[in-house]
Structure formats: structure tokens, C-alpha cells
Amino acid sequence: MKFLILRPLQQSELGMFHAYRRSGRETSRQRAINFDGDVVDRVFPTAADTDRIALELTYDTDEGPRCLEHSLKRQAKNWRLEGNCPTDAVYDFVEPDCLFALQVDAGIQPARGAWVVFAKDDPTAIAIMADGSTSGLMRAGMIALQPDEAPRVHHLLAQARPDMFTPPASQDFSMTDSSTHDAEGTAAPTEPGRRRLPPKADRLANILGSAGHSLVSAVADLIDNAISADASEIHITFGQPNGGQGRWMTIRDNGRGMSAQQLDEALTVGGDADYGPRSLGKFGFGLKGASWSQARKFMVVTRQAGGEVRHLGWDTTDMADFAVDDRPLEEWEKAITDPGEKGTVILWKDMKAPVAVPTVRGVPPFVAEIQDLSRHLGLVFHRFLDGDAKGRPPLKIWVNEISVASNGPASHPLTQHYDVKTLDVPYDQGTAPVRVAPILLPHEDELRQRHGDGWQAQADRIGYWGKRNETQGLFLYRNDRLIRWGGWHDMWATSDEKTKLARVILDIDPALDEPFNIDISKQKVQLPPFLQSRIKPLADDVRKASKAKFGRNARPPVPPAPPVPAPPGVAEGPVTGGPSAPPSPSPSPTPEPSPPGPTPIAVRKVTSTKFAWKLAEDLKGDRTLQVGDVSEPLVRLASAIGTDPAAVDALAAFLTELDGVDAQQSLVGTPDDA
Fold first, then answer.
1. How far is CA 553 from the centre of its chain?
2. DSSP-based three-state secondary structure for 299
3. Angle at the Cα of 613 (from 612 to 619), degrees rounded to 5?
């Protein structure tokens, strides 16, 4: 029950430190650090039975680390860390957004641990805020992480302050020579008091095949390998399930092929493959994990130029002692796995039926699967299909002899491109760039004017066939391969219908794989709060522009000359918060018409202690100012203003400014004069 608790301190909490009070900057009389109720519930699951949790914590003093009794005291739904207000001058650096880090063992009573405050520009604080495991701070303001959830962060703290923090235990569990067994079949000890229990091979394959892949993502993972092998053509054949051989598929490429040693390594779980900086692979697991997720048996057939054909595979129904499948191929298998002069063919046999069959009205499920696969590949590999992937030849993909069409997030010519910003993200070996490019899709009225009766087909395509609202948000690329798309991560909790035209393209350097916690299937990415806080204002510009296109009676005209995005390698200008103009002498895009004036704001008193105020807008554009129970003066002020439109609008504008500096935080936590 060991946890690491992190929180960027708010101005209202800094009164806990006498050094801050002496500076004259104190704005409230709170003498404690706020603890989120959800965090306390996770760390101390029996907290519901008490109003006080005893702690023994070590902290910094002018004479060095000292251990003192602390406590967490319940305050409404949240808690506060109390019991000690340090008088030490060592805390004269504290300011808003400095990082509070507490490591605690909650499995003993009283709980024991240590806390440290880092200046916000301290390298350790910057590295922690740039780690994907801390992404929840963008949304919650406080998080609790166990060692296996954030090993890098735990190591960073232990490295910076070994006197206060301990790193997670780590050992080398690699297996050496095989263990022997006695006459009864019991594994003999490899050293006194120890014996080996190797995993069951077939069950391990099933477990590793449950890594979160769908059919489309599994095929994409194999295409990654083909691209890394310099393939320029990929043929996917999805066999008819009722054709006599069951459900099967082949993925054939014209890449380099593999030697015997490379083939052995490719079939080894966690093999020692050497991944270069431009490789699309990462973990030495893609071939096995993707294949096991879809098929009970798979075979790899490969040939290098001028070499012989080799094959090797796994059969999950016969994996005793991890014996690989090298039996001769059947005639029908030879026919569909011929690699030609060079290349590799993956054969999936005895494929698993889909958990959820794609449903398209009037289309058989098997055809719908093929359609779904083609659309997915056209999105994920659109830069390769268009010849825009850096250092790669144009790629061609066929599914059952039908060419896959590219369909990137900015593929429509009416898409507006905003100025590009490159952000440097720190990590333990330096910094790595993230390229941020906001874009704005055309409104339906623009599509009608441009395409006439064919506008719906265009809308379906750029909206990914009914998923335009789901695909608003961030599109994340690694080495020009799209790895995740849709959603605003922790920057906004929900996706507003009126912001569905807004997208932000991010190009992530592979050096950030570990800090961003990119998983085995390359579909999960955690963006650190350091990065999200810098992306948010850029994304907010394009979200506002999307909302403007949905203003009442707004009918945006078609721009006479849509802006052209800068080609790869061309330097971009600074962020201006608006669409970038195309190179001269092309005319600038016709500016959007000004949206209609804001609708009157209704003031509504609500019973809530979670917020002091909240501004909300529904799909019709009607706006409401909700006032909670937290601040009695605000309740009286809102009541006194009544329905005066100008006064309500001014109050709403003022409260919006206060939201920009997190002013509600000091109101939600009741001041403590102790």
C-alpha cells in the first residue's frame, strides 16, 4: 500500500509556510494543503469511517530532514493536510504551481512517509510534469500513483532526494539454463530454496494476445513491421470464411525479408530486435501479440533477395516447451504465402470470430469487416499512402485486390490550417520536439456549396462515417504513423457538439515513447500536464472557431483559396491564434463572418459544494450561470443583480477571468485560521 501523491500547490495553500506569509504575498488564511477526496479514498480505503487520519511524515527543515506527526482532516468531501506549518526559511521559494510530492506507506498505522516541495522550475519537477503518468494532474489537480503505475517518476524522486524517497524495487528475472525435474516431475531447485515454474506456453499466448488489439489495429501493427522492412507494396487477402479453410488472412509485403536468425528472433516473445529511431516497431512483441489476438495459429513465410524461402510459426494448440511450428506447409498454404523474389507473408489461420461484428445496412458482415479494415488503414497510414512520410517511398496497400484510399484528418481542400508550433518537451535525456498543428474542418454548409448533391458523401468521409464528434480533438503521430485520435485528453472533460470541427495534429518524437507511456498496441498515449497546458490555448483557438461556425444563422462562405499547410521540413512561423495565410501571391482566406451577439445569460442558484460558479452552454446556444453554495457573498451578489442582462454579462465575464487563475480553489476549501 505504498503511494506517491502529487499536487501543484495553489496560492491559497501556500499560507501553510511561514516563509510565504513573511513575504507579504498571502491572499487567504488557509494553513493547510488540500487533499482530493478521491485520492484519499484510494490511498486510505477505510477513510469513510473516520474524520482524521494519523501520519508520521519526514520533511525538510533548516537543520535538515525531520519527522513530525501530521494528519489528514476531513473537510466536507475533501481533506486537508494539517499538523505542521513549517517556519523554516528553506521554503522561501514557494509560489503557485510549485510541486508537492508525498511518498506514503498507507498499509501501517500511523501511515509513514516523507514530503518535499520542489520549485516549479526545478529540473525534477519539470521532468515529473513532463511524464505521461502524471497526466491526471491536468484534470484533477492531485493524483495518487503506485510504484508500478509511475516507475520513472518514483526513480526521478529517489534520484533527486535519496534521503526522502525510495525507488521501486527492480530485479532481473531473465531465465538462464533449463531446470531439471525429479522422478515425480517436480521442478528441481536452481539454488537452495528456489525452483522454477515456467509459464504454460499456450495460456501465455492467450494472455499476451489480449493486449487490446482489434482486427484493424492488429493488421496495422503488422504493416508497421513491413514498412520498417522498407516495403512499398502490401497485399492483404481476407479469405472467404466458407471457402473450406475456415477464417484466414494473409498480409504480404515486398520488404527485405528475413534471415534464419532474424526469423527466429521475430518469433521470440520479447526478442532483442534492434529498433532504429525511424522504426515503427518498439517492443519486440507486435508480430506475436497482434497475431495471437486474432488467430490460434500463424505462420511467417519469408525470403531475402537471392535466398531461400523460410517459414516458422506458432500453433497455440501445440506449444509444449515453447516448441515452434516448423512443419511443412500444405499445398494451399504454399499457394497463398509465396513471398516472390523477396518479402514476407504472415498467414493467420483458425482466426477468432469478431466479438462485435461491424453492421452496415445492406452489407454482409464479412464485407463490412473488409470495409472497416480499409478505412482504418487509409486513416492510420495516410501519410505513407500520400508519399508524405519522411524518408519513406510512397506506399500502396490493397485489401482483397482493392486499393486502400488515403483519408487524413486534413484531407479535404476546405480544411483551414492554423499556424504550427513546435514545443520542446523535457525528459531524462534532454528534450524532444512535439509539433502542434491545429486545423478546422469545413462546416456542412460549406460542403453543400462546394459539392452540391454530393456533399453528404464528403461529410461522411471527413467525419469518418458518423464519427465526426468522436474524432474531434487530438491526432497523435509517431514517425508519421497515426497512433491515436479523437478526444481532448485531460484538457476538456467532454466533447461539445459545436467543437466537432476542431482537430489538432501532434507529431511526437519517438524519444518520448517511455515518458508518454505508449503501450504495446501503440494505441494508448498519456500526454503529460506540461505538454497539455501548452497545447490547450492553441486548441482553444480552433475550438472557438468551430463554435463560431455553428452560430445562429451563420452560413460560412466557401474560401476562394484555402490555405496550404507548410510541407515537411519548411520552417513555420510563430503561433498567432488564427489560420495561417498561404504563401504569396495566393489571396488570404475570406474571413469568417462575425457570429451573432451572445444570448442573454440566465442565472440559476444550485445546491452544490463542488463549485462556486459554473458557466454552461447548451446546443442551442443558451447560456446559464450556475451559482453554488460555496460563496455566500457571490450568492447574494447574483441575487442582487437579478435579471439585468448587462450586469449578468459583466459578472460572467469577471468570473471567467477568475477561472483563468484557478480562483475557485481557495473558495472550495474552507479557510483555516489554525
1. 37
2. strand
3. 150
Give me the amino acid identity at 666: S
Enumerate residues 6+ apart whose C-beta is below 8 A from 361.
none
Q: Which three cell numbers stand for residue 161?
A: 532526494
226 three-class SS: helix
Name 322's Cβ contacts closer than 8 Å, sequence gap at least 6.
Answer: 201
How many residues in total does the chain contain?
A: 674
The packing angle between helices 286-294 and 215-228, to 10°, is: 150
Read out DSSP for 17-29? SHHHHHTT---S-
Query: What is the residue type of 626?
Result: Q
Cβ atoms of 267 and 371 closer than 8 Å: no
Q: Three-class SS of residue 377?
A: helix
**CA distance linking residue 353 with residue 78, whole number of Å:** 47
Q: Is the pTM of this model over 0.90?
A: no
Neighbours of 322 (CB within 10 A): 15
CA distance 551 to 569: 37
- Give the pLDDT confidence of 321-339 residue by residue, as tens digits: 788 899 999 999 999 999 9
Query: Strand, helix or coil at 42?
Result: helix
List C-alpha distances in Å: 490 to 15, 494, 527, 532. Answer: 29, 9, 8, 8
For 86-130, the three-class secondary structure string (H helix, E strand, C coil) is CCCHHHCCCCCCCEEEEEEECCCCCEEEEEEEECCCCHHHHHHHC
Query: Which residues touch 523 (CB under 8 Å, ≥6 apart)?
Result: 212, 217, 483, 484
User: For the chain, first and last CA: distance in Å?
Assistant: 31
Residues 44/46/49/50 CA torsion (nearest 10 deg): -20
Cα torsion angle, 256, 261, 264, 268, sign: negative
Measure the CA–CA gap between 334 and 347, rounded to whole angstroms: 10
H or E element at residue 69: strand 66-75
Q: Which amino acid is at 318?
A: D
For the chain, the maximum distance between any two Cα atoms, rounded to a whole number of angstroms, is: 92
Q: Which helix (H) or strand (E) holds 7?
A: strand 2-8
Q: What is the pLDDT of residues 172-223, one digit of tens each?
A: 444 444 444 454 544 445 455 566 666 666 666 666 656 668 899 999 999 9
Of 611, 582, 376, 572, nearest to 483 (Cα)? 376
User: CB–CB of 39/100 below 8 Å?
Assistant: no
